[in-house]
């Protein structure tokens, strides 16, 4: 798998989840504001909407959107501690905190000295 991310963006949620499951993955940091990859090529060639997160699954399939990617990762990892059984209140409680992490937590984790106009020099 390969995760496309941007510092300070909501893709931090997926990055945390991938680290938690401990499986192998590649990480590519893109300039979302300019839609540019580190090699200078256009990010829209990978992600037509130009947004993160985007995950390449390895069979040519891509997924976007935090909660969709997270569900895929949790299902693949078969970790009931990350996602309890469907229909249980425990599952909905996990979904609550994961939504908070996906929507809010990343806002306080912008790297020091990060300049939005100069991302990824």
TrEMBL record:
Matches recorded under Pfam families: GST_N_2
Coiled-coil ranges from the UniProt annotation: none
Classification via Gene3D superfamilies: 1.20.1050.10, Glutaredoxin
GST N-terminal domain: residues covered: 14-74
InterPro entries tied to this protein: Glutathione_S-Trfase_N, Thioredoxin-like_sf
Protein name as catalogued: GST N-terminal domain-containing protein
